[in-house]
Amino acid sequence: MSESNQLHPNKIVHFSVEASVGSRGNFRITVLGQLIIGLLYSFGFFDFRIVGLIIGYILPVIWVIGSYRFLKFRAMKTESLPFPGFIRKDPGNMLVIIVDIVFLSIIWYIILAGLYDATWLKFIFTIFFPLLTLSMMRSLVIIPQDKEDKGNE
User: Fold this and answer.
1) How far is Cα 118 from Cα 137, in angstroms, rounded to an integer?
2) Using CA atoms, how far apart are residues 149 and 115, in angstroms rounded to an integer?
3) Best label site of 48, 82, 104, 136, fewest CB within 10 Å?
4) Is the pLDDT of residue 152 over 70?
5) In this predicted model, what pLDDT tens digit does every residue of 108-136 receive, in sequence order?
């Protein structure tokens, strides 16, 4: 069946993970694009607020939702992964997603409103955190599943 090929049963999460980090090539393109555009934005080569909003807020929110939902899915399928119990349950998983998005929203409101316009803050939130999230998602994609799970598929 096609479900065994999918990274996640939710089509939106599957598409987000597959398009961003599903293959080595997609991962490289996503990381290089985020890195180049993040550097250009962070150091003021183009100071369009819409670029900061897209690469520093919208894409990371999509990746945060995708990575935590995928983390929950992988934690439930692969018992040997040492994830906390609240990640395996929906209220805890959704709470982590909401807290992360609220944190990103507050920081990007401060940056985009011009209240605090430090280069290092833009660098952290357009390069460091998005690349960390992408790396986490890529690691979850390439982690092998338990032997029992492989036998059932």
Assistant:
1) 28
2) 50
3) 82
4) no
5) 888 878 787 778 888 888 899 999 989 98
As a whole number, mean pLDDT of residues 2-15 equals 66
pLDDT of 26 over the 50 cut: yes
DSSP at 151: H
pTM score of the predicted model: 0.79
Burial 2-28 (b: 16+ CB within 10 A, else e): eeeebbbeeeebbebbbebbbeeebbe
Rounded Cα distance between 51 and 126, Å, is: 10
For residue 69, give both structure tokens. 């939902």
CB 68 within 8 A of CB 96: yes
SS (H, E, C) 71-120: HHHHHHHCCCCCCCHHHHCHHHHHHHHHHHHHHHHHHHHHHHCCCCCCHH
Cα-based distances in Å from 88 to 78, 97, 106 = 11, 13, 27
